[in-house]
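Two quick folds needed for the group meeting slides. Do the first one here.
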Amino acid sequence: MTDTELQTTFVTHFSPSVDDTSEACLVRIYPHSIGEGIINLPHETIYIGREKKCQIELNDPSVSRQHAQIDFNQKGFTILDLDSCNSTFINDIKIKQHRLASGDLIRIGHTIFKFLSNEHIEKQYHEEIYSMMISDGLTKIPNKRYFLEILDREVSRSQRHQRPLSLIIFDIDHFKQINDKHGHLTGDIILRDLCQRILPYIRKDEIFARYGGEEFIILLPELNSQQAFSFGQKLLNAVNKDSFTLEQVNIPVTISIGIAEFKLDENYSADDLIKAADNKLYAAKNNGRNCVKV
């Protein structure tokens, strides 16, 4: 499903009054849509769903016709699930009714909104836009754009100081089959939970990012290819040692990993490094998957 297909239709200009603590808005943080997913919340009931008459229309088959409603009273904004097929989630917890607090994440189908409210709403909004520019709304890790900026910097540093630099590219094996069998919502949860398994292994000077779809990328400064291979084996074991359990269903997940080391040659570029790691990823796929190739 494309970003265009998941456009919200109830979008207004963002012009909060910082003196009115009852002002609130939703920012659509996933799928990514800077400037097109800002929704000012009126002081009246609005509906979210697949029907065109809903004020917030989501063209997504996993969303019910009338999925949820947001009400306003003197105490603030409340969201109510309307007995939807796939439920409404606040901060990854299924809810029936929930009083919204600033910063709450609302997940309806594939779409994730962030609720912003209080006298600092304008500041929060600009902070959220910056976050959307550098991070992936679903997994909360850096996005491809931010990663490529850091990669250019680290490549220059590696060349200047003649220090090793390695790159890992990996993706989830047979991810389309997981989506087809268990649904795209389950696929989204697996992507998010997989990142949570891997993050503890990422050091402060390393960059772990979502590169696209089910593909991820890790930049490893100061590591040569053999050190990166050992690191890749740890990631492999972290992912496949336990199945992912969703609603009492165990889903085995494996990954394939490709690794390349930057060549300390003035003619070797960041693009060359990515291409080399990508070729090793294909080699891992051709070797039966669930393995590391360097």
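Then this one, please, same format:
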Amino acid sequence: MFEPFNGSRHCIAHALVVSGMIAFWVACSPQVLAQAQPTQETNTRQSSTAVQGLQQADVNEEQARAWGLTPQEFSRYQALMQGPRGVYSPGLDPLTALGIEARSAEERRRYAELQVQAERQRVDKELAYQRAYDEAHARLFPGEKVIQLSSPSAGSNTGKPALLGSDRLAIFVKDNCPPCIARVQDLQNQGQAFDLYFVGSQGEDEHIRRWAILAGVEPKNVRSRQITLNHDQGRWMGLGLGGDLPAVVREVNGQWQRQ
């Protein structure tokens, strides 16, 4: 039989006597059940948020370690990139951003040293891969250069080299310049014909070839002269346009202008 026990006006305890055994259960009003549901959902959301926070902390710690930074330093880098520095220099790496925004000479020196070490490791890895790439190309395509540089243009022996042509874009790039690589890839993806001038190559053809390969320049585009690769040889300074690299320029009414 069923026997109600004393309970509140919202929940009532019941007992069922069966063969000398007593089973208990509590019946609550719909109002109480409705109030309990949001609490469970809130707890679930809070637990999920806590887990996501821990996962993000682990990711940040791993990224900080990759750059030789503490989690606190990496968090400051993230905060900096959410402000004006991120607008002025989107995609800036942590060491450069922290070095530029250093709060003391000691901090600036620390980040500079970390960046020198990081750059050395990067270059060593890239050179090792470049050697492997060159060896593979020589083995698979003997006697054929990966990327052939353009012949010197007219005027290059006069000390005042000229740009190749007025009907094409020209882009000036340099080493250690991620925006230069991004701009070249963008022009290539658009199917643009352009002449690339490498500033600071010191006349070394392999320097430009290596940069072009790392930048993803397609050898077929170089062979067809859709893209030409050239030493700057003072052309950029001769234009007198100023500003940071990369610089995309075109001749308009006899004057070279940034695009």
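Slide caption for protein two: The longest strand covers residues 11-18.
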